[in-house]
Structure to design on (215 residues):
């Protein structure tokens, strides 16, 4: 019987190694990547059954990567393994196509259970996540200022890359768009969010889980 193919995406090398040791006896670990853009390329090439990913990843955050993966590899089941327990992040992950969501501090005890449940066609949410975490998904009226809802996917990509210190030219090369297009989106972001400096962009990205503060 073929073992499920699993792709890992996280920029914490030590965590990846620990997960690898935990999962190797039961799953075929086909690859590991450390940023969201590399995840998209690996998913296309490796065709995994399961993708285990973080929210805060360089170049492209996990939520926006998940939205793209839903179109690129719709059969792959997405499980978020993250430090973010805020209900807004949980809701954003499931709206992006997640089948499971658990916290890194519970990985040793919950990860195998989460993957098995998702492989059965069920959803899994860590008990450590607040009980009302999924309420935003079923609310009858929209909530204001939801994480990731204020900007378009392209604007979020550019915001994250600006926050990571990339120049307009570097952003254009990464996203395969012109410098003028980058500046157009940056101007729109400034107007929408009242962000003026790179420090403002970085602060916003950290607060919304796109990147993590320097370790």
């Amino acid at each position: 019987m073929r073992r499920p193919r699993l792709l890992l995406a996280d920029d914490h090398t030590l965590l990846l190694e620990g997960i690898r040791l935990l999962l190797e006896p039961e799953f075929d670990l086909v690859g590991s990547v450390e940023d969201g853009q590399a995840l998209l390329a690996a998913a296309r090439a490796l065709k995994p059954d399961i993708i285990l990913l973080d929210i805060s990843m360089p170049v492209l955050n996990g939520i926006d990567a998940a939205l793209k993966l839903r179109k690129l590899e719709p059969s792959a089941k997405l499980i978020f393994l993250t430090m973010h327990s805020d209900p807004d992040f949980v809701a954003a992950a499931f709206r992006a196509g997640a089948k499971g969501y658990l916290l890194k501090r519970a990985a040793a005890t919950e990860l195998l259970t989460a993957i098995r449940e998702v492989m059965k066609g069920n959803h899994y949410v860590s008990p450590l996540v607040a009980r009302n975490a999924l309420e935003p998904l079923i609310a009858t009226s929209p909530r204001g200022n939801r994480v990731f809802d204020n900007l378009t996917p392209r604007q979020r990509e550019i915001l994250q890359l600006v926050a990571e210190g990339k120049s307009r030219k570097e952003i254009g090369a990464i996203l395969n768009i012109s410098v003028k297009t980058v500046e157009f989106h940056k101007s729109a972001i400034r107007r929408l969010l009242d962000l003026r400096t790179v420090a403002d962009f970085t602060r916003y990205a950290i607060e919304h889980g796109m990147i993590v503060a320097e370790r």
About this structure: Confidence is low (pLDDT under 50) at residues 138-145. Residues 179-193 form the longest helix (15 residues).
